[in-house]
Amino acid sequence: MMVRVVLRFALAVYCCVIFLALDSVYSTFLHDDGRSARIPHPMYHHGLAPNFDGYENWGDTRYRVFTNSLGFRDASVRDVPTRPSVHRVVLMGDSFTEGLGVNFEDSYAGLLSAAGMKRANKIEFLDAGVIAYSPVLYYQKIKFLIDSGLRFDEVIVFSDPSEVRDEAAEYFCNDDDPSYRKYCSEGSTYYYQRTDLGSVLARHFVVTDTIRKMIKFRIQASAGNQKKAKSAPTSETGWLFPESNQESEYAPLGIEGGVARSLKNMQALADLLRSHGIPLTIVVYPWPALIAQYDPDNRQVTMWREFCAENCKAFINLFPAFAAAKQAHDDWYERLFIPGDFHYSAGGHRLMFDELAKQLL
User: Fold this and answer.
1) The whole model's pTM is what?
2) What is the residue range of 318's domain?
């Protein structure tokens, strides 16, 4: 009896090893060559490589990435002329604008791009957003694009709740203000590749990872634990929840220093655009915690609304649309967000697009 059990166990292990070996060969040589689009940049810290055609992995999510000649996410690899033949709008933001975790055509930037070119009076939307950008990098990248000769008619900044923490703690080497240069350190990475189990499996064992995700997501959906975890304040959103005591996460400038630097760099961007006759629009949108604990007049909304009163063509507040979605659907998290993450799924991007289209198209 014992011998039979041992033999069956050994056979099972043997089959698993063969399966993993074949999965690894397929994942390495047939499914993806392992390249990443992410590169450093001397002026705006980091960006995406131009004319890239490949894949990126974000936790349990694997998705296709194309970039155009400017190093912007796009529907395909293509050359973007310096001077547009139609009305051109640059979209600026961080990972939500880049469309982290979804294909470009499912992101709000991709949906705007497709819809803009279908209009009788075409609008070309260019997606300049990249993960972990904040106002200092918005300013530096737009300045670089203008100085490089790129011509565009409008800029829309999608202001993320995480910006204040980034401004409090990062990118001092890229700031024109000498008072921030004393904090300059070259330690900040430009390559944001997650190293958790899901990311490793997604890169090296694609078939195994697909099976794992099917099981994992069904368990999580039935338990509701991811919704609960992502609905709690985080270090990135701590400045909007004073009771969360996240001040230590905002070193060296602190929360108020991060707010002040955010406003200072956004003002620099507004002044730069004004000098070139280019109007600015700011859009604000929520993370899960800000939907779960909805406050229509939270500091992110009021800060940029007041800023836009003097500096913007328009201010677009998407918080009410997400609050309405929460009221309409108990499973709002599952509908709007990547499982186990705070980034929007295709459903969340579609909601953003539907609201943006009312004012931008």
Assistant:
1) 0.85
2) 33-55+66-191+224-360
Asked whether the beta carbons of 132 and 46 are under 8 A apart, the reply is: yes
Percent of all residues in the chain with a pLDDT value above 90, rounded to a whole number: 70
Bridge partner residues of 48 (DSSP): 38
Rounded CA gap, 9 and 6, in Å? 5
Q: Which residue pairs, CB below 8 angstroms and at least 24 apart, start in 307-311?
A: 307/263, 307/266, 307/267, 307/270, 307/282, 308/282, 311/266, 311/267, 311/270, 311/274, 311/280
List pLDDT tens digits, range 136-195: 999 999 999 999 999 999 999 999 999 999 999 999 999 999 999 889 986 555 544 445
State the pLDDT at residue 185: 80
Both structure tokens of 167: 């401004």
Question: Residue by residue, what is the 3-state secondary structure of 9-33?
Answer: HHHHHHHHHHHHHHHHHHHHHHHCC
Query: Is residue 47 a contact partner of residue 41, using CB atoms and an 8 Å limit?
Result: yes
Residue 337 · residue 229 · CB < 8 Å: no
Residue 187 falls inside a structural domain: yes
Selection from 95, 238, 239 nearest residue 159 by Cα? 95
User: How far apart (Å, rounded) are the C-alpha atoms in residues 249 and 140?
Assistant: 24
Burial of residue 294 (number of CB atoms within 10 Å: 0-12, 13-18, 19+): middle
Instruction: Answer yes or no: are the C-beta atoms of 154 and 281 closer than 8 Å.
Output: yes
Distance CA 198, CA 200 (A): 6
Q: How far apart are CA 71 and CA 51, in angstroms?
A: 7
Regarding beta strands 45-48 and 38-41, do their DSSP bridges make them parallel or antiparallel, or are they unpaired? Answer: antiparallel
Q: Which letter does DSSP use for residue 242 in this model?
A: G
**Token pair listed for 84:** 């547009």
Q: Domains in the chain: how many in total?
A: 1
Assigned domain for 202 exists: no
337 located within any domain: yes
Nearest to 212 by CA among 228, 222, 197, 226: 197
Percent of the chain residues past pLDDT 70, beyond the cut? 78
